[in-house]
Specification:
Strand content of chain B: 5-15%
Largest interface: A-B, 19 and 14 residues
Mean pLDDT of chain B: 94
Number of domains of chain B: 1
Mean pLDDT of chain A: 95
Shape of chain A: globular
Distance between the termini of chain B: 21 Å
Oligomer: heterodimer
Structural class of chain A: alpha/beta
Radius of gyration of chain B: 14 Å
Number of helices of chain A: 19
Radius of gyration of chain A: 25 Å
Number of strands of chain B: 2
CATH topology of chain A: Peroxisomal Thiolase, Chain A, domain 1
Chain lengths: ~500, ~110
């Protein structure tokens, strides 16, 4: 079977301190219910600078400058340690500051809903001119801008959502309709953020892997927002809007949703489309979630931490036809949580982990690395949610003990050897399974690992349509070369050369 | 504990009588199990939900506690919960749940 391959991955973070304060759901809820709260008053003191965000160990891992294994060398918490590498640009992507991202939101704005203040627009244009991934055509989309009075008027009188920088209004997102809640300023703000951060991830995927955007035939967007209007709330689609913004002129696409499990659903769907020969190159991409900024802020502030959920996440991965070298996606070894699976952790882990292993006659220990929900524990531990990746690895190991593939006393060494510390921001879909894909490509190329399992899980019940949970998983494996490649033996080569020489000699004698 | 779940517990206690309701928790951390248990016994400690200031005093157990384990079919327990027994800090959970029961449970 000719399996599809993972051609490359791109990962981006966007530091958005003001959006955390003004658009994160924890903060907006607090403003509504308890506007004079101590939390809101003290929040500013817990916001990190861009330099701190860049020097944060998990962020340098996310963009590929540090391997996740390196995190094991640092005691927790990590926020007070400095990364040995403090680069804004990384092997797989970049960390973008908020002002540049606001400029990018304007570039993403197809309906002239984003209004920027004159001086700010000029400054951000200048900054973006130095960015390696944007050219004049992109930057020209940032127009001259408006006076601050016009912008505040839009916010105060016309329900526009403010865009802030260093605590000051520098622009706004206007509503796209006067009564349609699916086109109000709040929703348009969130959706433009998804489009802009998704496009940034796709542009990084293309640039960091030397890909041709015109070679992309299909895009699957797998974040957690919905775009549409009063007659079709989730009509779609982010995929094509993002493809357009990244110059993927030959692509169409669609959006796939499944809460945090969506990226792994998208990975399997993309692999199937490529393996079936429908498309040669399919990209999966997701932008970030403004609502989740500062989600655990109250706990962070209470425990004296900086508010660590100060970045939006984005990623893009390209799946292509087998090239004989890049890691393959084993579409024959897929796990899925079915309607009948049940919701106990044991049933979930069995369906996602051991069911695909059994199809390939594999043991739990045959997978070198499991990529589960790779949430950064620096964020979740102070919020009382524990270390999510470690809990997942313990569950996988415990199932191994029950299957008698691991000795009970070796449970923790299994976690150590087959797991990884978490490094991804808690943006729902962003930490789920996919953050390791970029490293897996490199680790397989370097001969460090042969097999990785990508596991995505999603809390469907949050949508109140079902009490069910969801998840899918798939195995990524080192490429053993083209199975059906036509090989030519040494003898045949000798024969061919001899024939060519004879022919050549004959032409000489004829003359 | 989310507001909707607080509402459901409150409604069930009113409908069936608080003495007839047992709440079983499955939270992975002792701290979060304890907070939820406190909510349905002594009231919502965050004063945000419908159980703020409502002392239902319900009976509370965690799925890995021996009381629950003894009360259910052992085959089902083996199939559904035994793996998590290996993963969770059971002692810490028992300690937390016992203290909530001693302090706030009326039944």
């Amino acid at each position: 079977m000719k399996f599809p391959i993972v051609k490359g991955a791109g990962y981006v973070l966007v530091n958005t301190p003001d959006m955390l304060v003004h658009n994160g759901s924890t903060q907006t809820t607090e403003k509504l219910t308890n506007p004079d709260s101590e939390y809101l008053k003290g929040l500013a003191e817990h916001i990190r600078t861009f330099d701190d965000v860049v020097a944060y160990l998990p962020n340098q891992v996310y963009i590929g400058n540090l391997h996740p294994e390196k995190l094991k060398e640092y005691d927790m918490p990590w926020f007070d340690k400095e990364s040995p590498i403090k680069e804004r640009f990384g092997k797989y992507g970049e960390i973008m500051p908020q002002d540049e991202f606001i400029g990018l939101m304007k570039m993403a704005d197809a309906f002239d809903l984003v209004k920027l203040e004159k001086k700010f627009a000029a400054e951000v244009k200048q900054k973006l001119q130095r960015h390696p991934l944007f050219d004049e055509t992109d930057i020209e989309k940032i127009k001259e801008g408006l006076g601050i009075e016009e912008i505040t008027k839009q916010i105060d009188e016309h329900h526009a959502e403010g865009i802030y920088m260093d605590g000051k209004v520098v622009g706004c997102v206007k509503r796209a309709h006067d009564i349609d809640i699916n086109l109000n300023a709040h929703t348009m703000f969130e959706n433009i953020v998804v489009k802009a951060s998704g496009a940034l991830a796709l542009r990084n995927l293309i640039a960091k892997n030397g890909l041709d955007p015109a070679s992309i035939e299909y895009v699957i967007e797998c974040s957690e927002e919905a775009c549409g209007d009063i007659n079709q709330r989730g009509g779609g689609n982010f995929a094509k809007a993002i493809a357009e913004m990244a110059g993927a002129v030959n692509a169409t696409g669609s959006d796939t949703r499944g809460f945090c499990a969506a990226p792994t659903h998208a990975l399997i769907n993309a692999s199937a489309l490529v393996q079936a020969g429908v498309y040669e190159n399919v990209v999966i991409v997701a932008g970030g979630a403004t609502a989740k900024l500062g989600m655990n802020g109250k706990d962070h502030v209470k425990k004296g931490y900086p508010v660590l959920e100060d970045v939006l996440g984005g990623f893009a991965i390209m799946i292509s036809q087998n090239d004989g070298t890049s890691p393959v996606i084993r579409t024959d070894l897929v796990g899925r949580h079915t309607v009948g699976t049940g919701s106990s952790p044991q049933a979930v882990i069995t369906s996602l982990i051991t069911a695909p292993l059994d199809k390939g006659n594999l043991k739990i220990t045959d997978i070198d690395k499991y990529s589960v929900e790779m949430q950064n524990p620096d964020i979740t531990k102070p919020a009382g949610a524990g270390d999510v990746p470690t809990s997942n690895y313990k569950m996988i190991g415990a199932l191994g003990v029950k299957r008698k593939e691991i000795d009970r006393k070796d449970l923790m060494s299994f976690v150590e050897e087959h797991g990884l510390p978490g490094w991804a921001p808690t943006q729902g879909h962003i930490p789920s399974g996919v953050p390791y894909v970029g490293f897996a490509i490199d680790d397989m190329a370097d001969g460090k690992i042969d097999k990785a399992m990508i596991v995505g899980k999603g809390s469907l019940f949050l949508g109140r349509m079902t009490n069910l949970f969801d998840g899918v998983s798939v195995i990524m494996e080192k490429n053993t070369g083209m199975e059906e490649k036509e090989s030519v033996s040494k003898e045949e080569i000798k024969k061919l050369i001899a024939e060519a020489m004879r022919g050549f000699a004959e032409t000489l004698t004829d003359e | 504990m989310d507001l909707e779940n607080q509402n459901r517990v409150k409604d069930l206690a009113e409908k069936h009588g608080a003495e007839n309701v047992v709440v079983v928790f499955g939270a992975a951390e002792a701290e979060s199990a304890g907070l939820s248990a406190e909510t349905v016994t002594n009231g919502d400690p965050t004063f945000a939900g419908p159980l703020a200031g409502v002392q239902l005093g319900l009976a509370v157990y965690h799925a890995v506690e021996p009381e629950f384990k003894e009360a259910v079919d052992s085959d089902v327990y083996e199939e559904q919960v035994s793996m998590m027994e290996m993963v969770l800090d059971v002692d810490e959970i028992i300690e937390e749940m016992t203290s909530i029961r001693n302090d706030f449970s009326k039944y």
